[in-house]
Input
Amino acid sequence: DLEAALEMHVEGKEAEQKELMATMRYMQSLHSECDWLLKYFDVRKEARSSEIDALGNAKAVLSGADFSLLQTHGQGPVKRPSE
Output
């Protein structure tokens, strides 16, 4: 009886150790994913903001707005070529 109980406990311990190792690997993968999200949060936030602005401009153009006179680069007012 004692040997059977010992064998049962040894097998139970091995199963628990395997489950613990699987849990530890999962926690490590979550930790790595969180590190990546934190590292690139600002870059992703800026990209989302730019995309939202671009979608807003596209929606305005599709609604009939004219952005052809808006200046995106350079300085000063837009000068028309003299005729």
In short: The mean pLDDT is 87. The two ends are 108 Å apart (CA to CA). Residues 12 and 48 are 50 Å apart (CA to CA). Residues 2-39 form the longest helix (38 residues).
